[in-house]
Every structure is written in structure tokens, then in C-alpha cells.
Amino acid sequence: MKIVVLKFGGTSVGSTDRIKKVAKIITSYLPKSYKVIVVTSAMSGVTNELVRKSKEISNNFIAEEYDVLVSAGEQMSCSLISGRLNHLGYKSRSWLGWQVPIFTKGNHASARIKNIYKKNIIKYLKSGGIPIIAGFQGINSSSRVTTIGRGGTDASAIMLARFFKAEKCIIYTDVDGVYTTDPNTIRKAKKIKKISYEEMLEMASSGSKVMQPHSIQDARLNRIDIEVRSSFKKAAGTIITKRKNILSNKIIRGVSFTKNDAKITLVGVKDKPGVAASIFEPLYKNSINVDMVVQNISSNGKETDLTFTIKSDDLSKTEKLIKKNKKINFKKIIVDDKVSKVSIIGVGMITTPGVTYRMFNALAKKNINIIVISTSEIKISVLVSRKDLNKAISILHKEFNLEN
Amino acid sequence: MKIVVLKFGGTSVGSTDRIKKVAKIITSYLPKSYKVIVVTSAMSGVTNELVRKSKEISNNFIAEEYDVLVSAGEQMSCSLISGRLNHLGYKSRSWLGWQVPIFTKGNHASARIKNIYKKNIIKYLKSGGIPIIAGFQGINSSSRVTTIGRGGTDASAIMLARFFKAEKCIIYTDVDGVYTTDPNTIRKAKKIKKISYEEMLEMASSGSKVMQPHSIQDARLNRIDIEVRSSFKKAAGTIITKRKNILSNKIIRGVSFTKNDAKITLVGVKDKPGVAASIFEPLYKNSINVDMVVQNISSNGKETDLTFTIKSDDLSKTEKLIKKNKKINFKKIIVDDKVSKVSIIGVGMITTPGVTYRMFNALAKKNINIIVISTSEIKISVLVSRKDLNKAISILHKEFNLEN
Q1: Cα(A310)–Cα(B270) distance, rounded to whole angstroms?
Q2: In chain B, which end has fewer C-beta atoms inside a 10 angstrom radius, N or C?
Q3: How far is CA B247 from the centre of its chain?
Q4: Considering only CB atoms, which chain B residues are within 8 Å of A58?
Q5: Is residue B208's pLDDT more than 70?
């Protein structure tokens, strides 16, 4: 049985008109002798509205009931899609988490899929039916409704593809694929045909919001090819796959960026063991995400300067936490909330020397000052002044031949 | 275990503020050493919105998926109520139809409750929990979601009261009880303390929309006392109970009415067997509800005049159906769409002679012409000109001592 898993995101099912279009997309797979398993998000806006209600009821709404509440969103959208397919003359039914069943482990509101019972769905597929499965939900061992914390319906799709050994897993969304950089910022951005899991993970965590990083990681671990494509226009999307499936001589796959960063430098920090932990512990406890960290070796061995970046929105909170932190000593705090991060990403840099030099040189030639540098195996990130951001993206996009 | 079933209707849970009030009502029963089972409707407007969406998807939305769709409404409201009780420090959880489970029989969208599995809920009650059960929903023998066609959440409440042998079944709604007549029409209308099932049934079918007639009938068959009261103000409501529980010397319990009726008279109908069936069959097939029917015996034994009433809204459709009905012959059709029906209702009339005379005489004294008369064991209805309606209600309300 050749199975394809189709996942539709919130905007793809955002109205009854959109749901009618989704039904057409689903039926387009049938002549290709595929058995289709559909998994859907809630209609866009529905989940937020339910979360808003839960907050009106309690500023600390109990997780068990939160799951019952928000899972209603996918219940509504999957029944509407199935209703449309029935209207068009196809055999289809909705499957809620407890009906499949999809078993989860872990806490309410942040459960993970442990097992998917296959028999019912296989039988239904064999009978010619199109199952529309409610994403983002499952049940735990006490038969309580749970929701998937990491990746939501993307995670449901990937786990369905894994358990049913699907040939394809297609994520329908409101963008038509992954681009070499943000097409709204750089006009010459190109759609990427194939990208490796690792590159996609770096793109995702550097600001390209196509798929949840956790879901990409799940796909990587289970070796599931994913195609990300648009439910709004007919065009091939981007395939996220194993490195060895990618035949391309590009060293760099894409340029990603985050715009609104802030930089904090603590000058003259006492350099003793555990000082970095003392600085970052209260930030972690307050859910402030520290991104780049640079520590200079102190000349006298007693003091050091420590620089790190955070989201601009977290700046004032962070400053307060630092200043009232009695565990640390420093001479001065320097703050810059007008910085941005640009990253180049590509598995090609592992085997190609000189990428770092090319990057720095290209920026230097246009007088763009690099404030902080951070590297990983397949990514080089630099912090620049926000006024230089678009120029930097454009230069790097051109330097690494991403325009063609 | 002294169990009380509390049912909350759509307006009672119509907003998160309302749900907070409902949580307070629920907890008010706990010091009275009751075990409380709550059953709830969807927040007002939610079901209509879901039905609207289903109609946008298909003018003939499949019933199996309709049930999945609309049952999400009660799923949301029951989790919000439970969330609020948890916020207040009480042990509570939501129970969906499949979790209890509540087993239904019959077709989708018009299922009836067949059985309620008690063990899980009893165990939960004994552990000190407050179960909040989603009304209007159950599952069938194929583990598909079903909704209760007749009476909806009222029916759920009565069946819960029956299966759990509840001492009380309290229907919280947006009216504070059953009145001797519509308090918006007649200022002197009084709240009825106790009313028999039979009287309530006649009141309901004559236009007093406090509870679904089917649910009252279910309560009657199962001998379950119901209290109808307001979740908006603190005041005793109306108890619907067995006749023998009612100690009251009132002959008449109330005056009900329907305002927008229409009357059709077919003059000179051929009087042969089956002619009435021929007239009413197409109306029945088009879901037109015929209310009062009067047929005069023909003087020559060959022709007759037949008069019947319908809702004004159905008049033009009915006229068309009659005129194109080839199975019937008549000389003339007379139509009056400015009539209303007034009814007096009371079990007391069974044992008290002269009620009919008193009714007709009271109307006659005020020059109100009676167009059609129809009687049942505990009800007398008369059709009057719509301009006389309010006067007629007022006269009868006074005549039968309902003002005090």
C-alpha cells in the first residue's frame, strides 16, 4: 500500500472556502493510486481564541482541561474536511485522537506521541476511505485527551508517516517552500528544491518559520522525507531530506536572519568558575532565551568581558535581572538594542575551506562591521548593526551564488 | 450517595464571566452533602456558528460528521467549567460522551440515550470529584460520536438523573421558572411553584419554551422531579413533578398561547373516506405542522367544510400545496392569517365541570369571538382574532384566579 500523509496547517483550513480547496487537493492524490491519510490543524484563529478563553477563566488553567478545550479546534476542522469530501462523493470520515487511537506519553499540553494504533486506519484505507485525522491530539494511558507540545500537528504528521511507513509526507502551509532567504526582504531569493534536515534545522532556528524545529528533528531521526508546499498555489515545494539525497554544488543553502536582537556586554566581570552560570541562571528561569555568547579571555586572569544577545523584547527584563543579581560583580553594563543576526547555512562548508573568510571579506568590502561571531558545524552567524542588516543579507546572498 | 444533577443551558454558560458564576452555583451544593453531577450545553451561539459552517461546506452535510462538529461545542464548555472549579481549588474534570461512556441508539444527529456506564463516574464521585459531563453527546456501538436529537442537553440531564438515581435534577436556564402565562405579555403573570408533567407538556407544546417537550416526557416516564430555575438570579424555580405531589386548589395552572397562526377553510370538500388524509399528506411531507382541525358534518352527506390551522409562516406554501393537490376537490378556499390560539391548561379540569362554559362565557362577555375550539383532557384551546389575543389572555388569566 503506497501511503501519503498530507498535513494542512491553520491558514490552509482557515475558512470554509479554504476547506473546499483542501478537499480538492486531497482528491488530486487519488488517481495516483495513493492511499491518503490527512491530518489537520485547527482553523487559524480558533486555537488562539480558545486559549484566550482559558486565560479568562484562570491565569493558571489546569493542563488536563486545557487539552480538552484546545483539542476541540482540530475536531471541528477534521469533521468539516471530511464533510466536504463526503459532499463531493468520496468515502471519508474524521478520526479523533481517541478513535485512532494515538497514544501519547508525557505531561498534558506537552505530550509526545508514543504509539499509533494502526489496525483501524489500515482497515479503513483498504475499504477505500480517506481518514481525516485530528492533529495535535492524542490520549494518555488514563484515556484523557492530550495535546502535542512540540511541533503540534507537524509532529502528528511525521509520526503518522513513520508508523504507517508513508512514501511521502507533505506539509501544506501558507508558504510555497523554503527560500534561500526571506523573499519579502530580498527580491532575488530563490525557492530551494531540496534541503537537508540539518540545514533546515539551522534555517528554522535562525528565523525561517516554515516548520517547527522539533518536527524537523523527528523527521530526521525517522528518516522521513518531507515536502513543504503551499495549499494556496499549485507549485512544487521544498523537499527536506537526507544529505546524500541532495545533488547540488552549492556550498551555502541559505541566508537566515533575526532582526530584533539586543546585545549586552558586562565589562570587568570577576573571572571565576561558575560566573557564567550565575549570570544566565535567572534569565533561564524567566524564560529569556540567550542566543550568542562571547567571552574574552581576561588579560590579568581576574576579570573578563562577557557579551551575549537576546531578543530586543527581553532587554529591559534582562537588564533588571542582571542588576539585581547579587551573585555577580562587574564594572559596567553596555547595552545595544539595535543589532541583528545574519547567518549563512550549508552542509557544504564542512568540506569547503575558506567559507568564513569569504563571508567576513564580503561584509568588510561593504564596510559592514561584525560585532559578534558564532559558528556551528554548518552555520556561521554574525551580529551586525540593524541598519546594515538588509545590505548584509543581500551581499551574502550574492556572494554564495544563491541568486541563480 | 445523595446525587443531584445540575444542567446548565447555553445562555447560562454564554461567556467566561457566566461560567465563573456557574462554578459558584455548583460549589453552593457541596456543603449540603450532595454529590454533584454537572451536565452542560455549549456556550450560546457556538452551536449555531458550527451549524452555519457545516451549511457552507455542504447543503447536505453528512450526519456522522455533523455530530463530530457540533459536539465540540459541549467539549469546550465542559472543560472551561471544570477549569474554573480547579482554579477555585475543587477537584473536577470534564467527561466527554466517549469517556463516560454514554451509549446511544438511533441515527446520527437524532440519537437517543440507551445506556450510561456508571462505574467511572461513581468512582470519581466517591473520590470527591465533580464531574462536568458534556451534554448532547454520546457514542454509538461503532464508537462514533453521536448527538442527541430530542431535547439535547435536557435529555442528557434527565437520563443522567435516571441512571444515577439522582434525588434532584435541576435545569439552570435563563428564565426563573414556569409562569402562569408569558410575563412579558401579562404583567400579572405569576411563577408556578409546582406543575405536573402533563400540564408542563401542554404548556410547552402551546408555546412556553422552558424545556423541550421530549425531555419533559422522558422525565415523566422515569418519574424524575425537575426544577427549572435561573442561573442569573437566586430564586426558587418551578418544580415539574407527578400530579399527586401537587397540593393546590387551582383548576387551571396556566394560560398559554401562540400568536402567529393562520386558518384555512376548505368549503365544499367531497366527503368521502380518506379525504382528510389526502389533504394533510402533502403538508406532512413538507414538514408543515397542522395544529387545530375542525370538520363540520355535511348536511347532505356529500360535502363538508374543513378548517385547520398552521403557523403563519407556512401559509403561502400550504396554499400552493392545497391548490395543486389533484386528489382533493373543494369549492372554495378561505384564508385568515391574523389569528392566534389561546389555551387554558390544568389537570383540575378533569374533576371540575363547567370549565369550558366559564372560559367561553368570560370571552363572550368581552365580545371576543371564538373561531375554532379544540380540547384535550387537560387543555382547552380556542382560536381568536389576533387583535383580541392579549385581551383574551388577560381575561382568562383573571377568570381562573391565576393573578394570586
Answers
A1: 91
A2: C
A3: 24
A4: 83-84, 86-87
A5: no
Q: How far apart are CA B373 and CA B393, in angstroms?
A: 15
Give the domain CATH number at A87: 3.40.1160.10
CA A367 to the chain's CA centroid? 33
User: Is the CB of A201 inside 8 Å of chain B's CB atoms?
Assistant: no
The reported pLDDT for the residue numbered A204 is 75
Instruction: Tell whether A381 lies on the interface with B, counting CB pairs under 8 A.
Output: no
Instruction: Provide the domain count of chain B.
Output: 2
User: In terms of C-beta density within 10 A (0-12 exposed, 13-18 middle, 19 or more buried), how is residue B325 classed?
Assistant: middle
Measured between alpha carbons, how far is B237 from B170 in angstroms, rounded to an integer?
A: 9
Distances (CA, A) of B145 to A83, B105, B136, B139, B228: 14, 11, 10, 5, 28
How far apart (Å, rounded) are the C-alpha atoms in residues B48 and B102? Answer: 24
Distance from CA of A27 to the nearest CA of B (A): 16
Other CB atoms closer than 10 Å to residue B302's CB: what's the count?
11
Confidence at residue B231, expressed as pLDDT on a 0 to 100 scale? 95
CATH number at residue B360: 3.30.2130.10
With CA atoms as reference, the chain A residue closest to B59 would be A87
Is the pLDDT at B205 greater than 70? The verdict is: no
Q: Return the ∠ at Cα B148 (arms to B146 and B152), rounded to 5°.
A: 140
Residue A311 lies in a domain: no
Distance, CA of B79 to CA of A69 (rounded, Å): 6
CA angle B96, B97, B98 (to 5 degrees): 90
Residues with Cβ within 8 Å of residue B187, at least 6 apart in sequence: none
Using only the alpha carbons of chain A, give its radius of gyration. 24
More confident: B137 or B353: B137
Cβ of A16 and B53 within 8 Å?
yes
Question: Are B170 and B259 within one domain?
Answer: no
Whether residues B168 and B295 share a domain: the answer is no
Mean pLDDT by 10 residues, chain A (404 residues): 96 97 96 93 96 97 98 98 98 98 96 97 97 98 93 93 96 92 91 93 74 88 94 93 86 93 92 84 92 80 87 94 91 94 93 92 95 91 96 96 89
Closest CB to A79 among B69, B78, B86: B69
| Strands across the sheet containing A92-95 | A92-95, A130-134, A35-40, A3-8, A168-173, A226-230, A238-241, A194-196
Whole-angstrom distance, CA of residue A343 vs CA of residue B361 = 94
Structural domain including B14 reads 3-174
**Does the ipTM surpass 0.90?**
no
